[in-house]
Amino acid sequence: MRLLPYLILFDWDKGNINKNIAGHKIKNEEAEEVFINQPIILLKDKKHSQSESRLMILGKTDKKRRLSVIFTQRGKKVRIISARPMSRRERRLYEQKTKKHSSL
After folding, report:
1. CA distances from 21 to 43, 51, 73, 104 (A)
2. Is residue 102 part of a domain?
3. Phi, psi (deg, nearest 5) at residue 87
4. pLDDT 10s per residue in the chain (104 long)?
5. Is 75 left (phi over 0), alpha (psi -120 to 50) or beta?
6. 66 is a domain residue
7. Is residue 101 in some structural domain?
8. How far apart are CA 69 and CA 59, in angstroms?
């Protein structure tokens, strides 16, 4: 059983609730796993933050899939905007940062 340091509430927009499964074969529940599993890397998504602040989380699912998830926070809820497999550049960054973290 996994204990969370805090409760994460997810808010799925009806307009894109099926977008990740259709485009990248990533179920919503799988995208949510990235927020729970460690290690993660959290980055600001400045490129897409015009109307609201967006963030990117790089992490792994329970099945060890490495995903890049773009999201925003609305109050106490996390709204996932998109989830996809990490790009080559993101995988490299994730491995470099997590390797440093695991050697501490």
Report:
1. 23, 25, 22, 36
2. no
3. -75, 170
4. 333 346 688 888 777 778 878 888 999 999 999 999 999 999 987 665 567 788 999 999 999 999 999 998 888 889 999 999 999 999 999 999 888 655 54
5. left
6. yes
7. no
8. 8
